[in-house]
Specification:
CATH architecture of the largest domain: 3-Layer(aba) Sandwich
Shape: globular
Strand content: 5-15%
CATH superfamily of the largest domain: HAD superfamily/HAD-like
Keywords: Magnesium, Metal-binding
Oligomer: single chain
Number of domains: 2
Radius of gyration: 17 Å
Family: Belongs to the HAD-like hydrolase superfamily. CbbY/CbbZ/Gph/YieH family.
Order of helices and strands: EHHHHHEHEHEHEEH
GO molecular function: catalytic activity; metal ion binding
Distance between the termini: 9 Å
Largest sheet: 6 strands, parallel
Cofactor: Mg(2+)
CATH class of the largest domain: Alpha Beta
Protein name: Beta-phosphoglucomutase
Length: about 230
């Protein structure tokens, strides 16, 4: 039986990837490190800010000190806040589904974004009280596809709900990227993948691939774990 559901954030709750891309380019283009949207999708999507900056410098064969990296991360966070201040739109069905699921089982969020990127948007959609556990880039040293973030999400769910019998095999992740699927699967968590960011043929390692969460319910997700 389904005991918990873990949502990704970017590309599942909201379409923030173009906004992240815009913020990265505002910083990287003056440094001669800019890249196209297609390259962002192919190489950088799914990374947290830290790994995205490290990768951009590595691709160009440029050195990046720890101090400079922290400055870039801080600046990107400030730019992103300016970008989202005008408001963002949730994906169809996700607010309803997360709220419905929270009435049935514990619901968590597992994202490579920073808390400052996530929490204001959750508040916009009145989802800030829905997620019992939130894991962000600030909580783990390695970003997806490393399984550390999903392992931590499961551990925190187990600690918060010790009588629920939560195990990785009784959890379900909702993801939109190959890196996210690999992260969840690496932690022993099955995945429903949504084609918000990648075509279905890039998401086949998920247990189920859907075009939208609008048709999903507790019953349809429970069937994946109980079947």
């Amino acid at each position: 039986m389904l005991k918990a559901v873990i949502f990704d954030f970017d590309g599942i709750i909201v379409d923030t990837e173009p906004l992240h891309y815009r913020a990265f380019q505002e910083i990287l283009e003056p440094l001669g490190l800019g890249y196209s949207w297609d390259e962002y999708v192919a190489r950088y999507m799914g990374f947290d800010d830290r790994d995205a900056f490290v990768e951009a410098f590595a691709v160009a064969g440029r050195q990046l000190s720890p101090e400079a990296l922290e400055q870039l991360i801080d600046r990107k966070a400030r730019i992103f806040q300016e970008v989202i201040a005008s408001g963002v739109t949730p994906y169809p069905g996700v607010v309803r589904l997360a709220t419905e699921l929270a009435g049935e089982v514990p619901v968590a969020l597992c994202s490579g974004a920073l808390p400052s990127d996530i929490l204001p948007i959750l508040s916009q959609f009145s989802l800030d009280k829905v997620f019992a556990v939130v894991v962000t880039a600030s909580d783990v040293a390695a970003s997806k596809p490393d399984p550390a973030s999903y392992r931590l999400a499961v551990e925190r769910l187990q600690a918060a709900f010790p009588t629920h019998g939560i195990a990785p095999s009784s959890c379900l992740a909702i993801e939109d990227t190959p890196a996210g699927i690999a992260s969840a699967n690496g932690a022993g968590v099955r995945v429903v993948a949504v084609t918000n960011s990648y075509p279905a043929d890039r998401l086949l390692s998920a247990s189920k691939v859907v075009d939208s969460l609008a048709g999903e319910t507790f019953a349809t997700l429970n069937a994946l774990v109980s079947g």
